[in-house]
Automatic annotation (TrEMBL):
<dbReference type="InterPro" id="IPR002130">
    <property type="entry name" value="Cyclophilin-type_PPIase_dom"/>
</dbReference>
<dbReference type="GO" id="GO:0016018">
    <property type="term" value="F:cyclosporin A binding"/>
</dbReference>
<dbReference type="InterPro" id="IPR029000">
    <property type="entry name" value="Cyclophilin-like_dom_sf"/>
</dbReference>
<feature type="domain" description="PPIase cyclophilin-type">
    <location>
        <begin position="64"/>
        <end position="113"/>
    </location>
</feature>
<protein>
    <recommendedName>
        <fullName>PPIase cyclophilin-type domain-containing protein</fullName>
    </recommendedName>
</protein>
<dbReference type="InterPro" id="IPR011990">
    <property type="entry name" value="TPR-like_helical_dom_sf"/>
</dbReference>
<dbReference type="GO" id="GO:0005737">
    <property type="term" value="C:cytoplasm"/>
</dbReference>
<dbReference type="GO" id="GO:0003755">
    <property type="term" value="F:peptidyl-prolyl cis-trans isomerase activity"/>
</dbReference>
<dbReference type="GO" id="GO:0006457">
    <property type="term" value="P:protein folding"/>
</dbReference>
<dbReference type="Pfam" id="PF00160">
    <property type="entry name" value="Pro_isomerase"/>
</dbReference>
């Protein structure tokens, strides 16, 4: 609207150019992220967090998910959960994985299938 009212205003022209540039950058990021859905691209420019070496501990429980695709076994994901760091969360997650908590208030099972 400002450009229509005063087409010779240099400040408005500069801001419109900045806006066009930012929109083009956003489209490039969107295309990189969603156009190559399964490639190693990221929508964000932040650096990945540091990868800390994890020492397996025999004292911490392990849980697993058996994966299947179309009813065919696809493998197993084994996770060690760190009870020494966050015991309550670990116990809740372990119970969720095993299904030992039964059903919730809504009658739905409290486990993964």
């Amino acid at each position: 609207v400002a450009l229509e009212n005063d087409p010779n205003n240099s400040d408005v022209k500069k801001q419109m150019q900045v806006l066009r540039t930012k929109m083009q950058e956003a489209k490039k990021k969107e295309k990189a992220a969603f156009g190559g859905m399964f490639s190693k691209t990221s929508l964000y420019d932040e650096k990945a967090g540091p990868e800390l070496p994890v020492e397996p501990s025999g004292d911490n429980p392990k849980v697993f998910f058996d994966m299947s695709i179309g009813g065919e076994p696809a493998g197993r994901i084994v996770m060690q959960i760190f009870q020494d760091i966050c015991p309550k969360t670990v116990e809740n997650f372990r119970a969720l994985c095993t299904g030992e908590k039964g059903e919730g208030k809504s009658g739905k099972p409290l486990h993964y299938k």
